[in-house]
Predict the structure.
Amino acid sequence: MTVGACGGGAIANCYLITATATGSQASDTGCATITYDSAGVRSGTSTDCW
């Protein structure tokens, strides 16, 4: 999992959390990487990730 500022801005104003599957979960290609930001926007390659 990583946390960083959105769009190169300040993390105090906007953050982006990225989780990347490892181990046995890495084979779940639909949810291999998911993100969540300070605006509450969630993303993944599948809607079933959340």
Q: What stands out?
A: The CA atoms of residues 36 and 42 lie 4 Å apart. Strands lie at 2-5, 15-20, 33-37, 42-43. The chain has one domain: 2-49. The two ends are 16 Å apart (CA to CA).
